[in-house]
Amino acid sequence: MSPDERQQFIGTLHLDLRKKRDMKIKELCNDDRPREKMASRGSEALSNSELIAILLRTGTQKKNVLEMGQELMKQAGGNLITLAAMSISELCRMEGIGPGKAITLAAAFELGRRMSEESIGTNPCMNSPRNVFRILGPHLRHLDHEECWAIYLNTANRMTGKERISSGGFNSTLMDNRFILHKALEQKAAGLIIAHNHPSGDMYPSVADINATQELSRGLKACGISLIDHVIISADGYYSFADEESVIHPSAN
Predict the structure, then answer these.
(1) What local confidence, expressed as pLDDT, does residue 7 receive?
(2) How far is CA 8 from the centre of its chain?
(3) One CATH from 1.10.1040.10, 3.40.140.10, 2.60.120.330, 3.30.428.10 for 123-252
């Protein structure tokens, strides 16, 4: 077999494999194909794996796109939040997922996070730890490392801004009170909410968390800024220091 014949044979083989893969989708009735199903019955009728298949667009030689969507959900333990927390590099480690597909998925999940934030308004009133959780939960719930975030408030306790203060390891992150105070003054904040996550899943504060919160509250108070809350976020929920008056306002002891 000449080199040209060999190349032609390989091309024919790849085409046959693609046809076999595509037939798996084509053999489904229209109501079971993700795109057609969404067009006729609406997005609510689709499973998570079917919606993911629409984003992926194409499959591989080994799996059609619907099977790839199912495999992605399986890898994430059936949890969309876990899948959304994966980085582009982590997604690319999965078979059949290249940079293009990974970026498409990441962009879709980021839009979902932004929509969640917009649902409570541009400058929401932060009068409940639940609002903190709704804003920062999508960022923090399923990280494999700790991060500390600050939410800046005006005199009406409405959010004027938020930012990540630090990023650390599995069981700790730096809560630099001087830096937090500097940023709060820079933002001209009247109040401040601090939030960080516990990748271990335990939402309750450690002794170090309590001590750092008390120290921060004293420093902010000296500058005329109120520490409104410190919220610890985990995969299963959140813990609010606002219920612990002696911690948020240690001078009350």
Answers:
(1) 62
(2) 46
(3) 3.40.140.10
